[in-house]
Structure prediction request, 401 residues.
Amino acid sequence: MRHPSFTIGCFVVVSCLFSCKNPSTHDAVQVVSSSDLLDETLQNLYQEKHIPGFAVAVFTKDTVLFEKGFGFADLDVKRQYTPNTKQMLASISKTFIGVSLMKSVGEGKIDLDAPINTYLSFEVKNPYHPDMPITVRQLAMHTSSINDSLEYNRSYLFETPLKKEDFDPAWHDLIARYNDNVELPMDAFLKNILWKQGPWYHEANFYPYEPGAYYAYSNLGASLLAQIIANVQAMPYEAYVEKEVFIPLQMGRTTWKRPAVASGDITRYYKEDLMPFPGYTLITAPDGGIYSTVSDLTKFLQEIMKGYQGNGTLLQPSAYATMLQSNLDTDSFPDALCWDLSVPCCIGHAGNDFGTSTLMYFEPKTGVGRILFANVSLDSEPQEAEFYDIFNALFEFDLRP
Prediction:
């Protein structure tokens, strides 16, 4: 969920939350017993009842070691949450921008260090530094100096109006804005905010520091990068990702179109009081609007893990290396190209939005990946604690043969 005073597209995962194993150490417990112990641990965590439903997966690049759902995708009808339940990925969606970017770079259609205005139909400049171009690489690393100002919240399209009485007063101004939002194409949305003549443009849409100088996570910057990819590929970004990623990886339950709750195909989203949110979509779908399942996303991360080892199918080995490693000789920039490097043991991404919380990380040293989806916002300590306890439990048992 976005904080009422500023917009955050993903939450930060601190390394102390992970119980990372020494890669050379294997438990004496046999694999089957380890799976049973993990299952029991997760069942006990679910009994805390702060999260309506969740699903997890633990896997290597070739084998799913554990996969299971717990609780409910819909509390009213008691529909089970399973590894095949669809849920909005939130900011994990940005990792697909990274793959699409490197595919476009490999085709010679994008230069990472070219000014972004080379590929845009409208001009984007930081008003504090108008003579310093923003580059494609800076968008991918969240160092572009583009700020997710309050204008970003125009991206949310709820299927029914939000009621102020259901939210803390700190949210009331934003709720009024959400209820006034109207649908429009993403390129028009971005132009309205980032082009100097745009109706929603103002200096607060940018930080006062130079492009490339500091890290500041930006949903707008990510979706602007997706728009660049769409422009150079001469097709909608969503169609490009489906063609180049979803279909080759046989991610048959992954989509850009929000399924109807009545279909039983998607989870409902819940607030911290376990009351449901209305369904919603994002105008800037590339930064958070992919719908997928734990099972389908496992296929994606397995491909990334293979690519990390030089055996991927979507990109050349050099492209995977560029995408998944720091592009700067400093620890002050915690992202690779659309991938999170802030957790010492792992590479991946997190997602957090209204009623949806997701984690997707793999350990290069052990070759193990882990995914967690939960259908609740992390805006109170009980939900947050249970959510991270669940993910930490995936590190406690070595399930490898």
